[in-house]
């Protein structure tokens, strides 16, 4: 066991923190040395978006004799966005001795996160990373430090995003076969009952296949992909974020990298005979993934796409594909959740009952003491498609409106001063489904591999009012 240990201990055991709320804890130093040299103890909290990769280009050179040669040059692209850069002196030697006696010391710290910061994320070409580092300034010695990465999880409340409950519909058709060997056409229609989901929730998909061809349909595949976009600049640039961007990137050479990762997928063997149609439903459960990132993040965006693929028995031109965008938030839509009882806290106004049993209060019922940050808007895909999500950013309504109707039938109101509100099953914070392999960038910065944690709602009821009738 070392004679001196330094730890950062958070008041939040899961080490997940929300914008607008404090990051708090204490720095603990334990030493068995009679005179431990220390001049000061500092805490540093950083929040950074970073993208980087390399590319190659051919460079033409002409020597003194006029002979041309070409060389391959490596070009670096990178970008940094600084969200947090906070330092605090926790202790300093007041008598000039620069010494601490043997024992254990604890220094509390607290820092309130800004509201407009994106969630933690680790990707192939970049990351959104937050860290807390304790450092002991030691005279004439190497400083001692301890770094801890943390998860920042914004409140992306689907109840205040108007289109989160909007159905999405899409369709596609193809003439099957090749050249003069046509087989007729195949039509695919897909309906998803709403746009907004949370991790742990099941995404229902209602599928209608109209087979106007002379060959049977043999298989249907559905999957949800995470589509990441990374922006960087030749030779790099750094942007300080404070609600705006202080560093102009105009005139700089910008490059973009994309990365697509499968979140969940399912294949279904079936047979839809020629000149027949078939309606059925498929379901995909969302694992622990980052919510949609489309605000406060100029160099990294993350969107989610549901893709469908229908196969037939023909080997030439026998498939039909379509895709549609969904939004992933961190607070589930309360409209269809089962009721739960909450005792009324007499110290709170009527619109703020205290949740019990781990329930999540919906729009109109804010949990006691919780003041949510502004809602998170949803930007649709930028490729010009609509997919039912609208062609403008979702307007953001005021958090937790107070005009939500009572979620129980008239005359069935509970007694004894309690109220009934829809509630979600208790959420848990689970490591990203991609684990510590989510990024390959700057992993040596951390004392141990880090995987962000995201809120996961298990056992949510499946919302599918447009499901086809069972066969």
Automatic annotation (TrEMBL):
Residues 182-333 form the Arrestin C-terminal-like domain. Residues 376-451 are annotated as: Disordered. One of its GO terms (cellular component) is cytoplasm. Residues 395-408 have a biased composition (Pro residues). Pfam families: Arrestin_C, Arrestin_N. GO terms for biological process: protein transport. SUPFAM superfamilies: E set domains. Belongs to the arrestin family. This is Arrestin C-terminal-like domain-containing protein. It comes from Caenorhabditis elegans.
């Amino acid at each position: 066991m070392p004679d001196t240990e330094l730890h950062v201990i958070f008041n939040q055991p899961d080490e997940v923190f929300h914008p607008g709320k404090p990051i708090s804890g204490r720095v603990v130093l334990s030493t068995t040395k009679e005179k431990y040299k220390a001049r000061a103890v500092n805490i540093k909290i950083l929040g950074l978006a970073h993208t980087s990769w390399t590319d190659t280009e051919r460079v033409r050179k002409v020597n003194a004799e006029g002979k041309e040669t070409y060389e391959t040059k490596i070009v670096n692209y990178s970008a940094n966005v600084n969200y947090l850069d906070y330092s605090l002196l926790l202790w300093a030697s007041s008598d000039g001795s620069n010494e601490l006696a043997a024992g254990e010391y604890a220094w509390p710290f607290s820092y309130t996160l800004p509201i407009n910061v994106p969630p933690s994320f680790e990707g192939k070409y970049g990351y959104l990373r937050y860290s807390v580092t304790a450092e002991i300034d030691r005279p004439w010695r190497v400083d001692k430090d301890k770094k801890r990465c943390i998860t920042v999880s914004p409140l992306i409340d689907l109840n205040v995003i108007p289109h989160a409950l909007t159905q999405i519909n899409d369709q596609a058709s193809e003439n099957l076969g090749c050249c003069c060997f046509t087989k007729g056409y195949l039509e695919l229609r897909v309906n998803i009952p709403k746009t907004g989901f949370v991790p742990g929730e099941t995404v229902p998909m209602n599928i209608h296949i109209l087979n106007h061809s002379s060959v049977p349909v043999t298989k249907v595949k559905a999957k949800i992909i995470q589509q990441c976009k990374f922006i960087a600049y030749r030779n790099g640039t750094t942007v300080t974020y404070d609600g705006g961007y202080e560093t102009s990137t105009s005139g700089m050479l910008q490059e973009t990298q994309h990365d697509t990762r499968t979140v969940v997928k399912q294949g279904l063997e079936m047979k839809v005979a020629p000149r027949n149609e078939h309606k059925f439903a498929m379901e995909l459960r969302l694992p622990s993934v980052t919510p949609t990132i489309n605000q406060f993040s100029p160099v990294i965006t993350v969107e989610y796409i549901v893709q469908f693929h229908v196969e037939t028995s023909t080997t030439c031109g026998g498939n039909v594909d379509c895709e549609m965008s969904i939004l992933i938030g961190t607070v589930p839509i309360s409209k269809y959740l089962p009721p739960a009882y909450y005792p009324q806290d007499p110290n709170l106004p009527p619109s703020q009952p205290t949740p019990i049993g781990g329930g999540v209060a919906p729009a109109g019922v804010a949990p006691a003491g919780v003041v949510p940050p502004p809602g998170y808007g949803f930007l649709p895909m930028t490729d010009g498609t609509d997919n039912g999500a609208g062609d403008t950013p979702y307007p953001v309504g005021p958090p937790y409106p107070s005009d939500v109707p009572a979620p129980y039938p008239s005359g069935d109101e509970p007694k004894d001063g309690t109220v009934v509100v829809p509630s979600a099953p208790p959420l848990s914070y689970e490591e990203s489904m991609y684990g510590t392999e989510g990024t390959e960038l700057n992993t040596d910065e951390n004392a141990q591999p880090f995987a962000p944690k995201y809120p996961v709602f298990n056992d949510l009821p499946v919302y599918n009012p447009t499901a086809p009738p069972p066969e």
